Every structure is written in structure tokens, then in C-alpha cells.
Amino acid sequence: MSDSQAHLLTQLAACLGPHGLLTNPDQIGPYCQDWRRLFSGRAIAVLRPADTQALSDALKLCAAHVPPVNVVPQGGNTGLCGGATPDDRGLNVVVSLSRMKALGPVDRTDGTLLAEAGATLASAQDAAAHAGMVLPLSIASEGSAQLGGIVATNAGGSKALRYGSARDLVAGLEAVLVDGTRLDLLRSLRKDNTGYALRQLLVGSEGTLAIITRVRLKLRPALAVREVALCALPDDASVLRLFDIFRKRAGDVLEAFEYISGTAMEIALQYVEGLTFPLSERAPCYVLVELAGQDSSLRATLESALEEALEGEVAVDAVVAESSSQVAMLWRLREEQSESQRLAGASIKHDISVSVPAVPTLLDKATAACRALMPDVRIAPFGHVGDGNIHFNLVQPEGMGADVFLREGKTLTHAIHEIVHDLDGSFSAEHGVGQLKTDMMETWRGGAELALMRRIKAAFDPEGRLNPGKVLPVN
Amino acid sequence: MSDSQAHLLTQLAACLGPHGLLTNPDQIGPYCQDWRRLFSGRAIAVLRPADTQALSDALKLCAAHVPPVNVVPQGGNTGLCGGATPDDRGLNVVVSLSRMKALGPVDRTDGTLLAEAGATLASAQDAAAHAGMVLPLSIASEGSAQLGGIVATNAGGSKALRYGSARDLVAGLEAVLVDGTRLDLLRSLRKDNTGYALRQLLVGSEGTLAIITRVRLKLRPALAVREVALCALPDDASVLRLFDIFRKRAGDVLEAFEYISGTAMEIALQYVEGLTFPLSERAPCYVLVELAGQDSSLRATLESALEEALEGEVAVDAVVAESSSQVAMLWRLREEQSESQRLAGASIKHDISVSVPAVPTLLDKATAACRALMPDVRIAPFGHVGDGNIHFNLVQPEGMGADVFLREGKTLTHAIHEIVHDLDGSFSAEHGVGQLKTDMMETWRGGAELALMRRIKAAFDPEGRLNPGKVLPVN
């Protein structure tokens, strides 16, 4: 370590206080690897500020250092694309927000919760529930994922159909720029047309424009009534016809509309213990639908929609949950999808989206392409079909080794992405770009769009020191 | 006119085709003045492109010209802050989108409408209704206001409580940068985390970053049932208690929650013919509430909320509309506010917002301040209280001349804005900054926020030729 590095660490230690700076390699290690173990890098220290001021002061020290110090913000380190993992070049510090986890009181009249970036999503959900409200954002990693990362990656999840993704739920935020400047966008205004949408721009920028330190999240009143049904459909094309029926009859209270392919259902029933198939016969595909609201009329709404679907042969069968345990049982068929596919062998996941009308075409073409390339592959798509977001997952053929499957599967991934690209879709619906997918930005978002993103990056971070190598491909 | 200007106009005429270029001063005049007649400027021509390609080509010609040509985009010219009016310095061309008014077919499954920027909001509403859907955005000038301007100014209006402002309703857009580069962000994806939120950034940028040429707008299913009530309240503090009751009992179907002060109600009843007061006694203030949804249970929801309000003395009286003509009659009490104040004399308007919990404080303090400065002024606030957006309007005292009122009223405006600023509110909730309010940006949005906005402006428009003098104060 050079004298100047040692001096910087001394200054940072003084600025961040006890427990505020980690320099021991054993302690730093976990911050330098993503949880999928796809990426690892190096850092000279982990900064753990206790508040925004300490972070601001620490970043000013980093900004003044020669040679330049790169700064990599990290939340719960649950991201899927390596967006919070430092590289192994230059001088990196990781900024962990995990000590900043205060949850402000819920303001029920404002309908918001103020929280520090290091609070977990689950703790924020609990705080909302304690006040009789709901934070309508839910993802699999919510027990560890932190709000700063949730907002920085514009997390989606199963409730986005009704409530939108993280960007739609952020009423305000505070951030610190890489030079230490504090940016206060916390004001809670439902209408404010005074200049550019900095808040919306920072959401989803994956820590490359600023480090989010506090967020004000929109809450909703808790809903008293849930009605859940599983529908069996004759084919993928009927999924959209069923969606039309439900949007027309229950648009205001449609809480979830989740697709499960026939193969995905079979794998779940085969590999997960305790699941029971609630219909009399298997079908080509299924939709799990939930309505949620304040009054008992939901049941009649659900039943009238199902009646229209069955009469029109949009659905061939349907079952309505009659108790909360049946609600849970039906939802398990959807929620156990990832686990059942893990139990079934190696799998290749595709986080893709297209416009809602294009979903049947996507399913049809991608299935045909995969079938042609690898006839025995288990094609097990499921997901948030109401958002056009399909987890188009492929599971290892029963007679093929995992290594062979993962190697040969690259051609299937390529074929799937070509189909999505032709449909003007997205190669990353929910998970972001991170460092995993930067090489796709040129092809998918190149030209004027990528050029503007680069200029915006330079406007916030002219030296390119904040989370380098993420989102934007290296020139 | 210089030779180079004449040459440019010849080139532009060839590029834009018949009817594509106006150079006659009589024809140009209306484009050089805002409709409130607060601002006027000069332009050497009005460009009226027939499509995006023609606009792109024309802007490339302007970019190549020496000296620089400034470009001012204009929609229906209904803005309230002079955001679409050229200044009288340098070489300006106005770009009018009015020939680009095609409305694509409604995609009912996608729930979107593709439209060119020059289509009026009313024509887009009609196209949605024709397909059995609703474009849930409504403003007073919707018959003339064009979609490009609606999106560029992030228009709000009376339905924003439930559906959000324009930014929340834009699924995609196409724009042209000042150098003629086309930016295609039209893809209709409900989930897409591939880079920075350019679309959200362009919405509300008031034509200073790019010229919006096409938009894809989110539609909603048409709602079959409306229930409307007028509530009389004992004081302004009860407004929020009533809001709490309605959000709890009818959060999903709460379509409108509009405040009318006692004075505003009196002025409406006094000056507008044909209005009838539907309650037995006058009250300090009123709330007009509407629920809208798909089924007949709304009436019971409304009645149970009113019952709770009356029992808790949050409301002192209430009337529920029993027919569509009564619905219209109750809504007229709100909709005639602007007209009645115009009939009552000169008025000074304030387009302000605060967080919802701060509304009673705002009303209380601003009323006291105005009363102290001008005891006889008629303080007649009304507005979108559920959004924290109050039209805090002042009407000329009966014994004072309009000129004196408007002159002396400046001190009242200053006092009101000081109170809003102390409450961390906004001086422009809906109408934007334009050129009318740029001088307020330094005080209200200065420091890091304004500095970043300037750098973003430079990222999109390094020469500062696109709508100069708007949004950002001149250095």
C-alpha cells in the first residue's frame, strides 16, 4: 500500500468513526463478490457511513485523492447482474449502506414512509403493515435486499401489474454525488413541475449516477379482501383473451395475473413435495389470478369473469379458493416455480419482456426455436404475463449432463434473445444491466439512446469514478 | 434578411414541402405570442413538418446554419407560462407540430394509443372512448392542447389523484434532438430495466431537451358506475380527516377529491347563473368526492364512508347525487370556479402544492397572511386537495379597482410563496416553469439540483439552441 493510500484510509477512518471503515481483507471479501458468484473484484476498503453527512465527507476525501478512487455502492448484495461488485482494476472502495437502516414513522395522511437506504425491503413492509398500510412491492430477496438497491435497480416483482415498479413507488429521495455533494429530492409532492425529473432518472441508474441515501416510499391502504382462482387454458393465445376479460370486469382490483406453462406446472408437481393439482385434468397452460380490494363484491366479480371465460371457451376449467389455506395452496403452485426448477436440474433463465399483445408470439416462436435446437429441453416458462414479463426458463433434459446443457444452451439463449429483439422487447425486464449485460446495450439500446446515456453519465460523474463498468459498455 | 437566411428558408421550404413553412409575418404572428399575452417574440419562420423525418431533416439544416438558429417547439399554444413562445433575440424558428395529428388505432390488449404529437388531447380522448377505453387525463384546454405539449409539460388536471399526471400515462415516446437525431423510445414495455430513464426525463422538460414527435399513451378500461357526493365540513382541518376515511374505505375507486372553500362557493353561487346550493346550510368549506368503478357496490361504499364522516363530525352535512343530472349539477359547483372568479373581477392565481398533510397549514397561514395585508381581499381557494395542489386564488375586493388590486397583490403573492417555500412545496404544481417563472428556480431548486439540470441540458443541447430561456434561469 502506498503512503497516499494509507493516509486516505486514516482520513476515512476518522471521518467514518468506529465500525465505519473495514480494511481487513477477510472482512472486505464478501463485499467483493456477487451472491451468484459470477463476479469478483478488489477494494482497498469498505465504507460504512452512519449517516448522509459522513458519506458526503468520505466521498470528498476520495475525490481529492491522487490517483483517482473509484466508488462502488452496495446494498444487500442480492442483485443478479453484478451491479454492486467492484472490478479488479484501479483503486476501489465499496460503500455499504447497511448501517443506515432507520425507518421513519409512516405518515398515513401523506401515504408515505421515509427510510434510510440500508433498511431491508422486508423491514419497510413491516413498518407499513404496523401502521395499517401496505408497501406494494415484493421480490424474492426482500429479507436481504435494501431499499437503496431496490430503488437503484427499479425492482419489479409480482405486484408491479397493479402498483408499478420501484420508480412508481418513490415519492422522494436523497442521494450523494460522487464528489460528495448532497442532493435533496425528498420533498413529498404529488404534483411538482419545476424542472427536470431528476428523481425518476436516479431510480434505475444502478448506482452509476449517485448513491441513494434516503427514500420516501408511497404506501397504499391495506386491502381486506382477496379472491384467488386458478384457470386452465386451452392454449397460450387464450391467455390474452382471459386478460382482456379480467381487465374489463376487474381492472381496478386486479392484483395479479400470472402465467404458468403446462411444463412448468408438471415440474412443480413432480419435484416439490406437498403440492396438489386442484383441477380435474391437466391443460396446456394456466393462469393464477388474484383480485384484492375492500369489499365482498370481489367474489361476484371473480365469478362473473370466470363464467364469461368458460362460456367463451377462453378457459376450459377453473377453481376458486374457498379459504385462506386454499389461497396459499394455489399461490404455492406459482411461488415454487424457481425452487422446483432448481430441483429438476440445471436451468437457464431469461429475464425478458415484450409488449403484452406480443406474449403469445414470443412463447410460440421461442418454444419452436428451442425445440428445434435441443429437442428434449424442458421449456418451462412462467411469469408476470400481465406485464409482458416472462421468465422463459429452460430446464436440463433428463438424459443430458448439466455441463453439456449449460454449454449448448448458449445457442438457445441467443435464439431467444433474437426473437425478443425482433419483437422490440427487453433483454432485462426486472434485473437491470449491472456488469453482466453491458455487452448487450450497444445492440439493443445503441445509437442516439446510448449516446445520451453516456452524456448523462458524464453530467453526473465526469471522471467516471462511480460504479465504473456498470450499465454502460466500456468504450 | 441576409443571404444566408434566405438560403436557409429556401432549403427549409424544399425540405418541408407545401404548407410546411410559414414566413409571412401575418401568419407567423400568432405563433410568437402566448395566449395569455404575457410574452411575445420574433421568428424568421414557422416550421410545420408533416412527419418526423421532415422535422429531422429541417433541424439538420438549422444546425448547419451560421449564425446559430434557435428552435422553439410549440403545440396548441395553451400553456400558462410562456414555455412555447420565442424570445426577441437572435434567429428563431418555431416548430409547430400541428400537422402531425394522426391517431393510431387503440391496442386494447396493450392498453395503449399511439399518436402523433400534434393531435389534441380531446381527439385522443375520443379515440380511446371509441374503443371502449378511457384516456384518464383531463385539463381545461383539452380541445386545443396537443399531446406533445401535454407530455412536454407533464400536464396534471383533475384525474391525477387516481391516475397520475402525464408522466404516469406515457408508455413510450419518439423525439428529435436539436441536431436532428431521432430518438425512438416508443417500445411498449411495462418492465424494462436497460439503462437510464430517458423517457421519464423528457416528459416535463418543456421542449428544452428534445422535440416530442409521437407518444404512446396508457389507456384504462371505461368505468360503468359513478357515485358523487358533496360534503359540508366544519373546518379546513377536517378535509384531511375526510380524505383518510375515503382512502381507507374507497382507496381503489376514489376518482376525485376536490376542495372548495366557503368563499369560493359563495362566489360561484353569486356570479354563475343556474347553480343551486344542494345542502340546507352554508359551511366553512366543502369537498366534492367521486367514486368510479365497475359495479353497483360503489353506492354502499360511498354511503358507509359518509356515515362514518357524519358520525365523527368530520362532515356536518352531505348530499349524494341520485341521477346523472345531479352528478352534473354537483360537478358544476367545482367546474365553474374559474369562470365565476373571472366574473367577480380581477384575480391573482397561485399554482401551488405542498404535501397532503400540510394542506390545512398552508390554507391557514396563507389566509392569515393575505387577510393581514389586504383585509377585504376575497380569498377563494379550491382545487385538487388529494394531490396537495391548491389553486390559492385571490379575487379583487368589492371596493377596490382592478389595477390597484393587481399592483398591491404582488405582496400577497410574495407572502403566499414564502409560506409554500417554508412548507417544502412547489411554486408550480401543474403549469411548469416556461419563461414566466425561471427567476424562481434559483431560490427554490438551486444548488446541486439546478446545477445538475444545467448539465443535463448541456448533454442534450450543448449549444443551448433548443427553446432557450425556458425552465433554467439564464446564467
Automatic annotation (TrEMBL), chains A, B:
UniProt cofactor(s): FAD
SUPFAM superfamilies: FAD-binding/transporter-associated domain-like, FAD-linked oxidases, C-terminal domain
Gene3D superfamilies reported for this sequence: 3.30.465.10, 3.30.70.2190, 3.30.70.2740, Uridine Diphospho-n-acetylenolpyruvylglucosamine Reductase, domain 2, Vanillyl-alcohol Oxidase, Chain A, domain 4
Keywords: FAD, Flavoprotein
PROSITE patterns to which the protein is assigned, alphabetical: FAD_PCMH (PS51387)
GO biological process: respiratory electron transport chain
Pfam families: FAD-oxidase_C (PF02913), FAD_binding_4 (PF01565)
One MF annotation (Gene Ontology) recorded for this entry: catalytic activity
InterPro entries the record matches: FAD-bd_oxidored_4_C (IPR004113), FAD-bd_PCMH (IPR016166), FAD-bd_PCMH-like_sf (IPR036318), FAD-bd_PCMH_sub1 (IPR016167), FAD-bd_PCMH_sub2 (IPR016169), FAD-linked_Oxase-like_C (IPR016164), FAD-oxidored/transferase_4 (IPR051264), Oxid_FAD_bind_N (IPR006094)
Limits of the FAD-binding PCMH-type domain: 39-222
Entry's family note: Belongs to the FAD-binding oxidoreductase/transferase type 4 family.
PANTHER family: BLL6224 PROTEIN (PTHR43716:SF2), D-2-HYDROXYGLUTARATE DEHYDROGENASE, MITOCHONDRIAL (PTHR43716)
Protein name: FAD-binding oxidoreductase
